[in-house]
Specification:
mainly alpha; elongated
Length: 113
């Protein structure tokens, strides 16, 4: 019967191998898309709370803010919310996100130091 250390090592090996298999099967790109969408979602919700006028300014805001407003953080995580989006909705959200972010930046008059 394997000891605790050996079972832990096997468990870790299984997690690592599952990650490697996901990458090999093309899952890395999709995981990166979902991670990016999660970050945009959280940022959009934060913008709505600290600067709603700027958040709603410009191109892409309708798509991005629709997804952000539909998210109930008390019911699901941001990651779960974006994973539940229809593929076309996720694609559109990610397509509009950079345009929305540029509009917010410009509306806020923000420049990087």
């Amino acid at each position: 019967m394997p000891g605790i250390a050996q079972r832990a090592e096997q468990t870790e090996r299984g997690r690592v191998m599952a990650a490697v298999a996901e990458f090999a099967d093309g899952g890395l790109e999709e995981r990166m898309r979902l991670d990016a969408a999660t970050r945009v979602l959280v940022t959009a919700r934060r913008m709505l709370s600290v600067a709603p006028a700027e958040a709603a300014a410009g191109h892409g805001s309708a798509v991005v803010l629709h997804v952000a407003r539909e998210w109930d953080p008390n019911a699901t995580t941001a990651a779960e919310h974006v994973e539940a989006l229809a593929p076309a909705e996720l694609d559109r959200f990610l397509e509009e996100a950079p345009l929305w972010a540029a509009s917010v930046r410009d509306a806020a008059g923000w420049t990087a130091a």
